[in-house]
Design brief:
The structure holds 2 protein chains of 2 kinds. Chain A is of the alpha/beta class. Chain A has a 7-stranded mixed sheet with strand order 3-2-1-4-6-5-7, sandwiched between helices. In chain A, strand 2, helix 2 and strand 3 form a beta-alpha-beta unit. Chain B has a domain of about 80 residues. In chain B, about 90% of the residues lie in helices and about 0% in strands. In chain B, helix 2 runs antiparallel to helix 4. Classes of the chains: A alpha/beta, B mainly alpha. At the A-B interface, strand 2, strand 3 and helix 3 of A face helix 4 of B.
């Protein structure tokens, strides 16, 4: 199985070397592509100097457009599986094999790494975890399968899902929205328990007021996605 | 002829003139001018014929016929801005695709360059 690790990175010059080392050490057979989302720092140069494939976007597209660029690459290069792995160092290379196993067994099209399947393993800030819970509750109803960590950006997709995401991937709240679109495509999704690190660099921009605003917008996006035509 | 009528005719006439002039000079694409032209013509028609305006207004239950002009103008603006939102969505989708394609081409160029440099070394 040919595997591509898609690493979206926006101003991650500090954490990126560690991320690439982690991937090389723990999943040496996979190819890595860093998608530089119009960073203002040395992200693209660092990735190129370390010898990984780099998709250097000319301007910032946001996480959705960046991840989709990775899926387009995976689709054209004929990869059998793609793993989304954040460039900020919060995901753990050793956990990737857990995401790939259901794909290898052929029991899922999309596998989501969840922080919440093992209770108490991950402590998100209060408002963030409240938001995640509300999405997860809503999504579990919409998707008719239980989702505990809908905002997780740590996922794996098989060839079928790669082809779909290369064609259609949401821009605004891609983690949550892509699950709704995948559900409409009748893809089989499962969650597996993974551990994640606390953010090593940078800090979350989410404040209580913003998170309420954010939640309202995401919930609206979910219902709009339900109305969308997928193919 | 009352002042209001003259104003309304002048207003819609000027609108039509500006739109046509912009198309003539190539500053406005025909595709984006259809709604503007239509708006200008409908408004001109309704403002120049008091009878037509009053007839339509009466049948819609509008007591003050000139306010029907405002309604028409407002509806056209609504349509035009909606049209713009659709156009902008299309453009942003296209620019996203272009940016992704550019990144993919850069990577292809980078890897072919690297490969040919390696060939040079081994020879």
């Amino acid at each position: 199985m040919r595997i591509l690790i898609i690493v979206p990175a926006y101003n991650e010059e500090e954490s990126l070397p560690g991320v690439i080392d982690d991937l090389r050490k723990h999943i040496p057979t996979a190819d890595v592509v860093v998608v530089n989302d119009g960073s203002r720092d040395a992200t693209a140069r660092i990735a190129q100097d370390m010898g990984v494939k780099t998709l250097d976007l000319p301007f910032n597209l946001g996480i959705g457009g960046a991840v989709q660029a990775g899926y387009v690459y995976a689709e054209r290069q004929g990869y059998d599986a793609a793993v989304q792995f954040d460039g900020d160092g919060q995901h753990v290379g050793m956990e990737i094999s857990k995401l790939l196993r259901p794909l290898e067994e052929g029991i899922a099209d999309i596998v989501i790494g969840s922080r919440f399947l093992v209770p108490g393993a991950y402590k998100a800030p209060l408002f963030r975890s409240l938001g995640i819970r509300i999405f997860s509750f809503t999504l579990s109803r919409v998707l008719t399968t239980a989702v505990t960590d809908s905002t997780s950006g740590f996922r794996a997709a098989n060839r079928k899902a790669i082809v779909f995401f290369a064609r259609m991937y949401p821009d605004d709240y891609p983690e949550v929205e892509s699950l709704v679109l995948a559900h409409k495509m009748k893809f089989r999704m499962i969650e597996v328990a993974v551990t994640m690190r606390e953010r090593t660099y940078g800090k979350s921009s989410i404040t209580p007021l913003r998170s309420v605003y954010y939640m309202t917008k995401v919930l609206m996006a979910i219902f709009i996605d339900l109305l969308k035509r997928v193919r | 002829m009352d002042v209001l009528k003259i104003l309304a005719i002048a207003g819609s006439g000027i609108l039509l003139f500006i739109v046509i002039e912009l198309i003539r000079r190539g500053r406005l694409k025909e595709r984006y001018s259809l709604l503007w032209l239509l708006a200008g013509m409908v408004l001109l028609l309704l403002s120049s014929s008091r009878n037509a305006l009053e007839f339509v207004a009466r049948h819609l239950g509008i007591f003050y016929p000139p306010s029907f002009l405002f309604l028409i103008a407002f509806l056209f603006l609504l349509l035009i801005t909606l049209h713009f939102s659709v156009v902008i969505s299309g453009l942003s989708e296209k620019s996203k695709k272009l940016a992704q394609e550019l990144a993919l081409l850069r990577e292809e160029l980078h890897s072919t360059k690297g490969a040919s440099r390696d060939d040079g070394k081994s020879e």
